[in-house]
């Protein structure tokens, strides 16, 4: 019987998830509107905002600061204000969700674009706006992606509501997203979270992608990772299938087992989708894999010159198509 | 050198309660006439067991319990089931057949193994493997027990090494096994 199972394995890699092909033309049109200059302009603005801010008072964090010097180089307030301003310019209702608890106060940025058919079902599109040093990749690229997606997607109509969220204090342990998920309680309104963290670093050199035991990946750091858990497996499949339809860029899917809380999954939990996974929500994490490739990860070398603008645009284009598909874009 | 281990090993087995304290090395020398055709034992092992392929990873730390039959003091048939964790919660099922070679207490063994990994896993999707393979991997492999000792039907083996392969179409996955300890008691 075991042998039969092994032989069955031969045919177990079934074709990619079938897509609703009638949606593909409008998805392609949406993706084409993602603008590279706007994306990079936003990253430049965010880097400037971070550079002009006095870093977070790391004395609050105790003795760890000598081991982790980046803790004394965290900025977030001006980037949060910038994100709020940009979303307001799109005429979207924007609010700040402020939660003061223990030593840390977080102020998440939340904007909403109502769905027309199932407005009570929300697709949450997020990135953290707090960074170490004036980090271009981690995570000004993620915030720029959310803002560009808000600009483009708000020109269309969707069945479901789109909620654009900037999470605060991710770097200190997913504090903003954790408190946000707590505030949802047992509500099932957020049907999917799409979280962006580091989207702009790519390298074609063989060996440029780091891996770890049990976490293989292509050798060249030139792919976009889409990461889900068992709950969001179908979304990962659809993301891969959309990429196959549009042939946008090399994409690598990772699906963590269960909720994603097994020890071997730990590197996959390291952004704001984590609290959503652990509470049983569907969430996908879209990333260039950050510390598995970027030499500027959490240090002063995370600068704009390390970014690859055309690849960054492709990552956002593919994400735009996927989000529009999941939200039920109207023709 | 191997026989030099015996004075160390015999007290260890006694301490583990696997042989009576009165047992002496000389007593354990097999007598062909008194060796039963089938000698059944239950065994338990612990260590590392993982299956790593380009499209999935599963297992890692844990242990198994099983039943072993040693036939004519030479051939080994065994089957076990266990629990592994790290890349998900996994139930490994292994059946194995092989041989032991007896030099007094010292009974090194080699076994052919068939190992299935049932349960959770990490999956990786690429153009080669565009969707999750839900069929559990079953690896055909070899397990070596170079430091295995038998005293009056009780077996103690340390540092067993195993490797196996399973097809993934395209590519193969490799099953790795490192048993830190395997203890069996006859019944
Ligand atoms: Zn980040």
From TrEMBL, chain A:
For molecular function, the Gene Ontology terms on record are: metalloexopeptidase activity
Q: Ranges for the Peptidase M28 domain?
A: 108-321
Checking Pfam families in the record gives: Peptidase_M28
GO process annotations (BP): proteolysis
* Name of the molecule in the record: Peptidase M28 domain-containing protein
TrEMBL record, chain B:
Q: What is this protein called?
A: Outer membrane protein beta-barrel domain-containing protein
The alphabetized UniProt keywords are: Signal
Protein source organism: Archangium violaceum Cb vi76
The highest taxon in the source lineage is Bacteria
Secretion signal, residue range per the UniProt entry: 1-25
Keyword Signal part of the UniProt annotation? yes
- The answer to whether UniProt assigns keyword Signal to this entry is yes
